[in-house]
Amino acid sequence: VGVDQEFSRVSPIMRVSLGVLLALVARVASTHDQRINNSVQSQYILQDNITGPTFFDRFDFFSDPDPTHGFITYVDQAAAFSQQLASANNSIVLMKVDNSAKSSGPRNSVRLTSKKAYEQGIFLLDLEHMPAGCATWPAFWLVGPNWPNDGEIDVIEGVNAATSNTVTLHTNQGCTQRSVPDSSFTGNRSVGTDGKTPALDCYINAPGEFNNQGCGIIGSEGSYGKPFNSGQGGVFATVWNASGIAVYFWPRAALPAGIRAGAAPDPDDVTWGTPMARFGFGPDCPSQHFTQMNIVFDLVLCGDWAGNVFQAMCPGLGTCQDFVMNNPDRLQDAYWLIRSLKVYEPPSASMRRA
Question: Contact 198/191 with Cβ under 8 angstroms?
Fold first, then answer.
């Protein structure tokens, strides 16, 4: 007797029960297979582990005049090492401004640009301390070779006594974020020149926005500055893929288990939560606006942003430049402490490269 014939002999109630059971088994098997496939797809591969004594081997020291007109002088690698503005050991990387004594002019500082350019990936920065305090303007960012045509992603940026991080994209014309819902990220959008309209256009000369403002999203309290440092820092994850760019932040005390364990990052992991900032690619912002991006760390004092809002954010301290020259003790928090920087790429990228 065939299976179909035997099945037809079963009572209608048993047939329904057996049918439901078979369907359930098939669904479980399908779900299991799908989870395996999703797990394979989500396994990003470690491409670069930038940490420890060889950290600076991955970067060039920028020693040209500061494009943002900061009250600093960027020094080359030899000067940075000899003046103890840059150092690295097995566990930590240090970069700082000179605060050894009063000065009669700009202070020496460090800016790094990665020797390697990247096309998408996950950039995982474990940071113990970021520069903070009046006059400071630090940034961790990615930038293409032909600015602004190849894009800029500011992952960490703020000025003076700010306590919330700002994530910003800067592009040429043709990239807006009007189709990205506010509910897809936890931060708040930056506003334009009228003080209330969200700055949705990433174009550096967008009407209704400040010069080179871009499209920014301001993170939660404690994601930047002194509160960030008092909690022993945290981890920033920048996910750049075909659908867009997202930036996650976790304070040290709230790292996802996978991140804490050093596992390959998985943005689909529910423990990651909602990103601080999210920007979408599509008709409103083609992905071609971002390509061949180098990693940059810098530390500016004063300059076009921090200097212009210095007296509003740090009242009663005189001008930004006078403050910098005469108060080396007030610059004691102007330094980066980096535990690690890891760049991951999806399996498809490794296959293409091989």
Answer: yes
Residue in 6, 119, 128, 157 annotated catalytic? 157
Give 3-state DSSP helix, strand, coil % of the chain, rounded to 5: 30, 35, 40
pLDDT tens across 163-185, in order? 999 999 999 999 999 999 999 99
Q: For residues 117 and 292, is the Cβ–Cβ distance under 8 A?
A: yes
Write the pLDDT tens digit of every residue in 259-317: 999 999 999 999 999 999 999 999 999 999 999 999 999 999 999 999 999 999 999 99
Question: Exposed (0-12), middle (13-18) or buried (19+): which is 278, by Cβ within 10 Å?
Answer: buried
Cα(51)–Cα(249) distance, integer angstroms: 20
Report which residue type is found at 91. S
Closest CA to 75 of 54, 96, 55, 101: 96
pTM, entire model: 0.87
Classify residue 106 by its DSSP letter.
P
Cα 56 from Cα 81, distance rounded (Å): 10
Q: Which of 152, 209, 221, 345 is catalytic?
A: 152
- Ramachandran angles phi, psi of 191, nearest 5°: -115, 160
Q: Is 128 a catalytic residue?
A: no
Contacts of 60 (CB under 8 A, 6+ apart): 112, 113, 114, 115
Instruction: Spell out the residues 6+ positions from residue 118 whose beta carbon is closer than 8 angstroms to its own.
Output: 142, 292, 293, 294, 295, 343
59 forms beta bridges with 114
Phi, then psi, of 163 in degrees rounded to 5: -125, 5
Alpha carbon 89 to chain centroid, angstroms: 24
d(CA 212, CA 311): 21
CB 172 within 8 A of CB 148: yes
- In which residue are the tokens 């470690």 written? 46
CA distance 279 to 276: 11
For the chain, counts of helices (H) and of strands (E): 9, 18
Residues in the chain: 354
For residue 254, report the phi and psi dihedrals to the nearest 5 degrees.
Answer: -130, 35
Beta-carbon count within 10 A of 8 CB: 10
- Asked if 221 is an active-site residue, the reply is no
CA distance 181 to 217: 12
